[in-house]
Amino acid sequence: MPSPSDPADLEFSPDEMRRLGEAVLARSVAHLATIQQQPVRGDVAAEDLCRAMREPAPEAPAALEPLLDRLFDEWIPRSFTTPSPGYLAYIPGGGVYPAALADLIAGTTNRYTGVWLAAPALVQLEANALDWMREWMQFPPSARGLFTAGGSMANFNAIVCARERHLGPEIRPGVLYASTQVHHSVLKSAKLAGIMPDRVRAIEVDAAFRMRTDRLAEAVEADRRRGLRPFIVVSSAGTTNTGAVDPFDAVAALCERERMWHHVDGAYGGCFHICPELRPLLPGLSRADSVTLDPHKGLFLPYGTGALVVRDGAALRAAHTATASYMPHMVEGDEFYDPQQHGPDLSRGFPGLRVWLTVKLFGMAKIRAAIAEKRALAVDAADRLAKVPGVVMVAPPQLSLFAFHLDWPGATRPARNEATAALMARVTARQKVMLTGCEVDGRVLARVCVLSFRTRREHMDVCVQHVTEETRKILGGIS
Ligand SMILES: *Cc1c(COP(=O)(O)O)cnc(C)c1O
Description:
Blueprint: H1 14-33, H2 47-53, H3 64-75, H4 97-109, H5 120-136, E1 144-148, H6 151-166, E2 174-179, H7 184-192, E3 200-203, H8 213-225, E4 229-236, H9 248-258, E5 261-266, E6 290-293, H10 295-298, E7 306-310, H11 313-320, H12 351-362, H13 364-386, E8 391-395, E9 401-406, H14 413-429, E10 436-440, E11 443-449, H15 457-478
Parallel strand pairs: 2-3, 2-4, 4-5, 5-6
Antiparallel strand pairs: 1-7, 6-7, 8-9, 9-11, 10-11
């Protein structure tokens, strides 16, 4: 502990730092070493626990070990085991180790990376990582990017860029378009950006849950006739419900014609564009004005890193540039990237280091192989499950997510919904595979999303086996 005789001393000695660091590292590594054996869905009925945890800030110092005991033995297990290879719920990512190391470096060295001038070489690493994203999306060199806390904030920033570019101060007539399947963060972001719900249009989807561009064109025209100003279409590179990929080329063509901004929410699926052989699954993505990516999904990073890439870097900068007399001089021109001039944050962590160190330690060949494998695993599992009697594959994988429900002769919709929900609950209760569902047009769908780097062939075999066995039991009980 820092010197007890000096009440204001907060510094640890090098030996203490090492000892504390090793204690934390030992627990973290042990946690990951046993991740496969941990239940995939911890007990999150924890109201009483949470009530009992409330306490005032302590006056006296505590020892680290007992705190680690409680964290690792009591609190961390009371959660969805998101790093588990069997976590196929929502959109997983896993959380690669190099990013955790980067966070430790960022936290201990604590340099100021909000402003280029304060740590130019470190900011350059972040600029490199953003430029890699730009290249993976096949955007032109004039594009600029921004690391955000997640996909939600990237979507928010994209809407602000589009609003500034196309509406200026006349926000109220501006209209945003997205499919009925768009992620709810887009609606939240619209509101935060001053685009109220009455200026947001939900465009119908086709049988594969993709935005219908004929309906989009009609909606744009109708709003123009009303004297409103259509300014942005948000399409999805993989929806959260069913993994649907919107028709980017058609949307891009319409946006060019109508002088609107085309934003692609690729929080789930954008990273599949990193693999050249998978780019045909996302045709036209690189024509967008901006793309949201979530490195904490598709690049397998731990939570806390989203990204936005904007085709016209000047638009990103124009939306965020600001200064004050106490600020160091801004970077003139755009040879060097200045994070605070491209996003809303000033002081912040160092998200670029997590991406940079991860990419450097693995190399892109390995990362591409992992991304491609997740898709292959999903395609294979969907093929196998589609053959199980009673399983109806409603949305085969466009990327690495598929959705299905149970059905049998004479089934009513409520009975199907109940059986499909029961299937997810029973599979998850076996604690090897966690599934979540969605509801589309009154239909309950079970989803499997493969995007954790830890999910390998053997885990998908367990998924197929458990879904098959539980389907048999449920349908056996009905007929
Ligand atoms: C996850 C997700 C988001 C939200 O991203 P966060 O990182 O959770 O903020 C937005 N859109 C899609 C399609 C997503 O999958």
